[in-house]
Amino acid sequence: MNSSILPLRRRGNTMPARRENETPVMAIQNEMNRMFDQFFNDPFTLLSVPATRTASDFMPRIDVCETEAAMLVTAELPGMEEKDIQLTLENESLIISGEKKNDVEEKGKNFHRVERSYGSFQRTIPLVSEIQQEKVEANFKNGILNITLPKTPAAAKQTHKIEIKSS
């Protein structure tokens, strides 16, 4: 008697070709079938990149917007302090780097899920306009870093509105 709960392998490793008039529901069904087959053959191949992230992977979220006078960058850096963050302008790019540290050691607790992340990071934001480097300002409050990168007068004048005509 076979005590394995794994199903027998299909003959051949090829998937059936997609039919011309396949419905979206059928496409979902085929994908689910493929995933179940793959899981029972090798369950570790289904792990996606986000699922395999470790607690040391930290990448801050950023917003970048441009006005007529400046570029504005906002970065979420929860749990960090100014001393842990470095800002540099290099090769027409703004580089935000730093390290989010986990200083608390918790003994006697059994974790079932860890979603908070720690570690060093670096984000590089390409600058689309010339910047007045000596006038760049950065403010950090409540875990939010706001950076104002004023454009040079020549770069600010380069904006040109294009009129759209209907035909």
Structural notes for this entry:
- The protein has 167 residues and is an alpha+beta fold.
- It is flat.
- It contains 2 helices and 7 strands.
- Among the domains are: 20-52, no CATH class; 62-102 and 117-157, Sandwich (Immunoglobulin-like).
- Strand 3 and strand 4 (93-100) form a beta hairpin.
* CATH class category of the domain at 62-102 and 117-157: Mainly Beta
- The CATH architecture assignment of the domain at 62-102 and 117-157 turns out to be Sandwich
Order of helices and strands: HEEEEEEEH
Name the shape in a single word: flat
Low-confidence stretches: 49-56
Q: Over all CA atoms, what is the radius of gyration?
A: 26 Å
The residue fraction in helices comes out at: 10-25%
Strand content: 25-35%
Please give the number of β-strands.
Answer: 7
- How is the CATH topology of the domain at 62-102 and 117-157 named? Immunoglobulin-like
Report the major sheet.
Answer: 4 strands, antiparallel
Strands side by side in the biggest sheet? 1-2-7-6
Give the integer mean of the pLDDT values. 77
Instruction: Report the total helices.
Output: 2
Return the structural class. Answer: alpha+beta
Short description:
The protein is 14% helix and 28% strand. The protein is of the alpha+beta class and 167 residues long.
Write the layout of secondary structure elements.
Elements: H1 24-41, E1 62-66, E2 70-76, E3 85-90, E4 93-100, E5 119-126, E6 137-141, E7 144-150, H2 153-157
List keywords for this structure.
single chain; 167 residues; alpha+beta; Immunoglobulin-like; 4-stranded antiparallel β-sheet; 3-stranded antiparallel β-sheet; flat
